[in-house]
Design brief:
This protein is of the alpha/beta class and 439 residues long. 43% of the residues lie in helices and 17% in strands.
Length: 439
């Protein structure tokens, strides 16, 4: 893949900043399987270092045994150089440790790289790191690593890899300027395509290389089939069954009018205490994202969240579309993707955009009278974000929230044109990745 198509990943800029940090720690790159972690680390190594060296804890028994014998960084580097036949030099080489969650010894060695050999640039990838660390008895060098999370490609990254002209326009657009109608329609069409393909790197490459949505669907189906194979790796047999049941219920959960997660949708009569571990597992694996409820719009938001009431969203738009068995032909139907399943596609899309911008939102409700899809903190303000799936909008909930809480700024995402006035930012879904800039 990496030799043929050059995918653009925004996180590369964060990595470049990490390289020059004064108090740099080993880098831990987290993310669900198949989002491109190893590829991005190699790209980083090729772009910013003289060379990079990759060791895989899962595949290479010799490397795993090396970490079991010593944690002394200079000896580790010397032995890895001999085994791989490549030099690992201070500041000049990026040492990539892949599948690091499979070795406690490799994880603990990071502490000594940070304390005794900070001149070495060490970056690690771990798909199921959060799940692995949850297992009883596993340790982690707390405070000794820098974390980053890689998500599937966002819409702006998709454009950057597929249509760089439009990507530049999105990247440089000013909040004061309305989008010309021809450009707005062009972006809407590309957003529909993104809703079909999604942001999993292999699916994006399939589309760019072949323009064949059947190949895209095969890839997405393979990924959906592969995810459950991980359930048994870090779960007991009883946990594995419940994780599978929660995963299988995701289509029903998301298709509901009220998208609040219900254990009864997993299994009739199910209770929270039986399935909350399964929900936590899927969140830690990066396959789903949890958005908790709050009825109180006060800072800090996290202090007022209700842990027992939440919604779950999927980690990728293409996988979501495939899970719903939506035919790619819906791309030709005017706005159909945005209105299917009562706006779940737009809502899921908006959340993933917020996560990539570093926000961890809650959702707000006022009894059964009103609901705002997302609340987030930004510069000591609480920002409500309402998501609509089309142009004609009735923002009763947002109006009620603004009257009740008087926020400095509110956001309404929809297919309407961009406009900012009277404390309300009308933000096209196509510009969702720019929301923080516009705030």
């Amino acid at each position: 893949m990496e030799e043929i198509i050059e995918l653009k990943r925004d996180l590369l800029n964060e990595m470049i900043r990490w390289k020059t940090k004064r108090k740099r720690k080993p880098l831990m790159l987290q993310g669900a399987r198949q989002v491109g972690k190893t590829w991005l680390l190699k790209k980083f190594g090729a772009t910013c270092f003289d060379n990079y060296v990759v060791v895989n804890i899962d595949k290479d028994v010799t490397i795993r045994e090396l970490f079991e014998k010593t944690k002394e960084p200079h000896r580790l580097v010397e032995q890895i150089s001999l085994i791989k036949g490549q030099p690992v030099l201070p500041e000049k080489t990026l040492l990539i440790i892949d599948e690091i969650q499979d070795s406690d010894e490799a994880l603990n060695s990071l502490k000594y790289f940070k304390e005794d050999a900070p001149e070495y640039a060490v970056a690690c990838a771990g798909s199921l790191l959060g799940v692995a660390m949850k297992k009883k008895g596993r340790s982690f060098p707390v405070g000794m690593v820098d974390f980053m999370t890689l998500y599937p490609l966002g819409f702006s990254e998709f454009l950057d890899s597929y249509d760089q002209r439009l990507a530049r326009i999105v990247r440089d657009w000013k909040v004061e300027d309305s989008l010309p109608e021809i450009l707005r329609q062009e972006l809407n069409e590309k957003l529909k395509l993104y809703m079909v393909v999604g942001g999993m790197p292999e699916a994006v490459v399939d589309w760019i290389e072949t323009r064949d949505l059947r190949e895209v669907d095969e890839t997405l189906s393979d990924i959906l089939r592969a995810y459950p194979l991980d359930f048994s790796k870090y779960a007991t047999p009883a946990e594995m069954i419940r994780i599978q049941q929660v995963w299988d219920s995701m289509q029903r959960q998301l298709a509901k009018d009220n998208k609040k997660f219900k254990y009864s949708e997993v299994q009739k009569g199910a209770r929270a205490r039986e399935y909350e571990v399964a929900v936590d597992w899927l969140c830690r694996a990066g396959l789903v994202h949890k958005v908790n409820n709050t009825e109180t719009a006060r800072l800090p938001l996290d202090a007022y969240k209700d842990e027992s009431i939440f919604k779950l969203y999927l980690n990728d738009m293409g996988l979501l579309r495939r899970m719903f068995h939506l035919d790619p032909a819906t791309i030709s139907q005017e706005n159909s993707l945005f209105t299917e399943f009562k706006g779940v596609m737009s809502e899921n899309y908006a959340l993933l955009s917020l996560l990539r911008q570093g926000h961890n939102p809650l959702y707000w409700s006022s009894g059964n009278q009103a609901e705002i899809e997302f609340l987030l903190e930004y510069k000591n303000n609480i920002v409500p974000v309402e998501v609509k799936s089309k142009e004609s909008i009735q923002a009763k909930s947002l109006s009620e929230y603004r009257k009740k809480n008087n926020p400095a700024i509110a956001v309404r995402m929809s297919l309407r044109n961009i406009q900012k006035r009277d404390g309300l930012l009308d933000l096209p879904l196509t510009l969702a990745d720019r929301m923080t800039d516009f705030l």
